[in-house]
Write a sequence for this structure.
């Protein structure tokens, strides 16, 4: 190729050069094969083949167990309830903060998105500390004060799990609906008013129907996330024997001590979980395709605000109380328990000490977990960002045969629950294919890359769509080779999107538990895993202290990201 | 020999054959306008010339250099064709300053830095953009961005520049100004310009030669602007190039008559023998080829008159038809403006005869 370039006449002859496009396309297919196809195929193979023969036995065996059926039922029940309440809450607050004259809207709107970046399992820990059926601080206080013989509230129930998940998942609907309300053409509502409709009628017949697509998109995001969720049911449900499919899979693996039989059972359970999620995805496709409105404009407009009159202050107080309960209470709880000398002591200054912090910051295991998470989050961020952009380029610009397959493959891992992905990665990369990464950071990295690839692929795709093909073609006609046109034109233009893609991966990877809890080895604990195991070992104050370190890290990084992205908006 | 030659170019996208055996030649130092309706394959042809689309068959030459030949398996890559292009959306790189945009082709040719600086300054002066040298494209208007694109195209090549619908996004005034500027630049530098458009007005304004394509990607006529307007080779060209009126002619007792529905009026002009093939024919005429003449036996009623500054635009009821008539303001001052509702006599100059189109219900 290099020699041909030097000789102009030869280079003009066709068919002698391997085009950059072909190399990128081939690379995209190979990478997705390794990262996505192999782990998923391994699950299917192990769930349906026993000693080389096709069989339904494993699945049937699982389906006839009452534990499996109750986990499936719990998964569906929790998923359904979380979706229902999360959607109601999201729509209500979206409307309140997007369309009414409630005070302090702008600040409250950003406060309402905090739960979105807060790790739900830390929230579950906080609520467990407060409302645990036996030892919760709030429960004990209420029992003493009101002379009750048993705990009045118990968070370790299905309803407790639903409550905590709702408080972390409602922002999905909230954010979707707020932005739809913002981008809606206000003349649509004004025309209805002019036509003689009352305020209430306008909301019911115009506003709500127009944001239905946004509501259903957010609702199904909640449903899928909740079905696949591990952290909250693991922390709140284990002690009471409440299992969902993801936590059941974890229990099966950890009980079997990593034996192959346990992993095969987990593979069969994974298939069941995938079926449940796939049904939800089908539902999503059906709902989304039915609601195609185009009247929501891309640019922001000034919508008419609704005067709440007498309800203004009560609703404002309600919003503040909600914020306090879902954001402040868990946060304060984690920080306070991190300070307390021993778990169970009253939360008064006399019992406070910084010993937990010094202990976790001097214990090599804990420090290693922070280091591991940083290494993993940064490398997963960089690698997924690069691969995602490569795949996005192939899908958007080169459009080879099989583009659809490529697109589906890169988004697939995100629809697959993290637990299932972890099982696939264990089956694929712990020696059965000749490569053994088990107990190394590599196996976690591979899982992270698969899990977060779609994030960067989506942001890069959107950015590449904005780069009109003529920009690259203009560079070609100006004498730039294909590689040069990529380097000079396309990459600089999508760089902001690539950077935000990196942080979209980095932040969730920092606090990841679901896959790492199944993949960690003795020396490869991640931050999330370490918090989880400190708590599991009964070292509540230390777990809380590490949790507050994690929260501070996330807040600081988020602030940096916001500063960077705010800077870039000017360009 | 012609400077640019397309020989028997065929291109198809999947089952859709866009161009078939298309041939066209451009002379050196001329402005050739390729005109055709949207989607007729003009842009595809340009992309073939630039090396962005690979034709299925045919050959492309620029100045004796073969850029593409399906037979000899030659396909010079886009970056070594050395043709300047101004895309429809300008394709000015938004992240580079005006200077960097214009300097890009020379940087790719590994020119010396001070030479690049000198030429950038020169060319920006030529397109009157000197004061914007350090601006980003986002700070420029559409017309200014286009000048940057033209300057950049001039840096890619002094010899051949392709302009692909470059002025469609501009308002009417700016459009005229840009056309004049393109003309001036061409006079000053002597570049060969290949101008692609679906706007016949711009083509007439600019082109030394016009090549007209029909909707099926076929070349239907090449010629000067006068050729195209006064001697259109086919009904398609006649209709494509401006507003037209068609009035059916009927042969009654070997005499042609205007068929106005309710009545027939003898047609005073000679119909060429070539039309005597028995099929129904129509007389075609442009609005500015009709004049008022009270002596004419062809009577009509003025429905509406619109004053457009340089001319009056009339909607006239002729029998069961409505036709358009244009009268220059000068003419109107001389012979008077026809009142709405008044009866007028019409005289047709420079009539064209075509086979009648089948009227669709």
């Amino acid at each position: 190729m290099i020699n041909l370039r030097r000789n102009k006449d030869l280079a003009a002859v066709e068919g002698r050069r391997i085009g950059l496009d072909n190399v990128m396309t081939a690379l995209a297919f190979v990478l997705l094969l390794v990262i996505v196809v192999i782990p998923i195929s391994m699950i299917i193979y192990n769930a349906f083949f026993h000693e080389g023969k096709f069989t339904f036995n494993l699945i049937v065996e699982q389906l006839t167990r009452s534990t499996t059926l109750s986990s499936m039922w719990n998964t569906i029940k929790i998923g359904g309830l979380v979706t229902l309440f999360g959607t109601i809450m999201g729509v209500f607050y979206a409307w309140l903060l997007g369309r009414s004259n409630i005070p302090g809207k702008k600040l409250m709107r950003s406060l309402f998105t905090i739960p979105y970046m807060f790790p739900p399992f830390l929230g579950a820990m906080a609520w467990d500390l407060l409302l645990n059926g036996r030892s919760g601080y709030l429960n004990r206080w209420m029992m003493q004060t009101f002379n009750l013989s048993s705990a009045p509230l118990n968070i370790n129930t299905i309803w407790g799990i639903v409550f905590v998940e709702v408080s972390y998942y409602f922002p999905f609907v909230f954010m979707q609906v707020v932005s739809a309300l913002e981008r809606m053409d206000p003349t649509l509502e004004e025309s209805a008013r002019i036509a003689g409709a009352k305020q209430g009628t306008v909301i019911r017949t115009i506003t709500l129907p127009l944001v239905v697509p946004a509501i259903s998109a957010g609702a199904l995001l909640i449903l899928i996330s909740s079905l696949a969720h591990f952290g909250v049911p693991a922390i709140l449900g284990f002690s009471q024997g409440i299992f969902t499919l993801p936590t059941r899979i974890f229990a099966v693996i950890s009980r079997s001590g990593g034996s192959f039989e346990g992993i095969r059972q987990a593979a069969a359970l994974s298939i069941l979980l995938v079926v449940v999620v796939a049904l939800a995805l089908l539902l999503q496709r059906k709902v989304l395709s039915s609601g195609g409105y185009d009247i929501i404009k891309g640019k922001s407009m000034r919508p008419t605000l609704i005067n709440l009159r007498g309800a203004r202050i009560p609703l404002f107080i309600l919003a503040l109380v909600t914020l306090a309960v879902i954001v402040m209470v868990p946060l304060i709880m984690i920080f306070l328990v991190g300070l307390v000398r021993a778990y169970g002591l009253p939360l008064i200054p006399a019992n406070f000490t910084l010993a937990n912090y010094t202990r976790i910051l001097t214990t090599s295991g804990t420090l290693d977990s922070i280091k591991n998470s940083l290494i993993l989050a940064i490398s997963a961020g960089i690698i997924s960002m690069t691969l995602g952009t490569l795949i996005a380029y192939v899908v958007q610009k080169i459009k080879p045969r099989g583009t659809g397959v490529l697109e589906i493959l890169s988004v697939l891992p995100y629809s697959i629950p993290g637990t299932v992905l972890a099982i696939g990665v264990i089956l694929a990369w712990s020696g059965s294919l000749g490569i053994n990464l088990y107990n190394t950071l590599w196996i976690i990295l591979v899982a992270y890359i698969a899990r977060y690839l779609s994030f960067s692929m989506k942001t890069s795709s959107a950015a590449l769509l904005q780069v009109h093909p003529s920009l690259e073609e203009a560079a070609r006609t100006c004498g730039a080779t294909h590689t040069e046109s990529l380097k000079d034109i396309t990459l600089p233009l999508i760089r902001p999107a690539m950077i935000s893609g990196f942080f979209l991966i980095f932040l969730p990877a920092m606090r990841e538990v679901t896959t790492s809890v199944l993949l960690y080895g003795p020396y490869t604990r991640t931050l999330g895993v370490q918090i989880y195991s400190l708590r599991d070992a009964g070292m509540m104050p230390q777990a809380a202290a590490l949790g507050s370190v994690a929260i501070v890290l996330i807040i600081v990084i988020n602030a940096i990201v916001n500063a960077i992205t705010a800077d870039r908006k000017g360009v | 020999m012609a400077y640019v030659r397309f020989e028997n170019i065929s291109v198809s996208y999947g089952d859709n054959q866009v161009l078939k055996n298309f041939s066209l030649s451009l002379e050196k130092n001329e402005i050739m306008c390729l005109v055709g309706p949207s989607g007729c394959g003009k842009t595809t042809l340009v992309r073939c010339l630039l090396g962005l689309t690979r034709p299925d068959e045919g050959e492309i030459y620029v100045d004796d250099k073969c850029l593409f030949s399906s037979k000899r398996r030659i396909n010079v890559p886009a970056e070594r064709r050395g043709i300047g292009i101004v895309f429809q959306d300008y394709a000015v790189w938004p992240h580079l300053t005006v200077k960097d945009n214009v300097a890009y082709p020379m940087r790719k040719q590994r020119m010396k830095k001070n030479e690049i600086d000198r030429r950038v300054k020169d060319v920006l002066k030529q397109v009157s953009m000197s004061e914007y040298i350090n601006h980003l494209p986002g700070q420029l208007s559409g017309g200014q961005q286009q000048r940057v694109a033209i300057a950049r195209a001039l840096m890619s090549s002094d010899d051949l520049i392709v302009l692909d619908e470059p002025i469609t996004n501009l308002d009417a005034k700016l459009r005229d100004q840009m056309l004049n500027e393109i003309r001036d630049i061409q006079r000053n530098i002597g570049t060969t310009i290949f101008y692609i458009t679906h706007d016949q007005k711009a083509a007439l304004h600019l082109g030394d030669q016009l090549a007209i394509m029909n909707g099926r990607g076929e070349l239907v006529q090449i010629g000067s602007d006068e050729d195209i307007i006064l001697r259109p080779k086919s009904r398609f060209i006649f209709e494509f190039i401006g507003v037209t009126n068609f009035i059916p002619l009927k042969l009654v007792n070997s005499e042609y008559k205007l068929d106005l529905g309710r009545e027939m009026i003898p047609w005073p002009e000679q119909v060429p023998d070539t039309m005597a093939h028995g099929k129904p024919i129509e007389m075609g005429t442009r609005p500015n080829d009709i004049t008022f003449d009270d002596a004419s036996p062809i009577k009509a009623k003025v429905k509406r008159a619109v004053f457009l500054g340089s001319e009056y635009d009339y909607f006239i009821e002729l029998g069961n038809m409505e036709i358009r008539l244009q009268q220059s303001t000068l003419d109107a001052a001389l012979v008077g403006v026809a009142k709405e509702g008044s009866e007028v006599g019409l005289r047709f100059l420079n009539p064209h005869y075509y086979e009648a189109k089948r009227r669709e219900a």
In short: The two ends of chain A are 38 Å apart (CA to CA). Chain A has a mean pLDDT of 84.
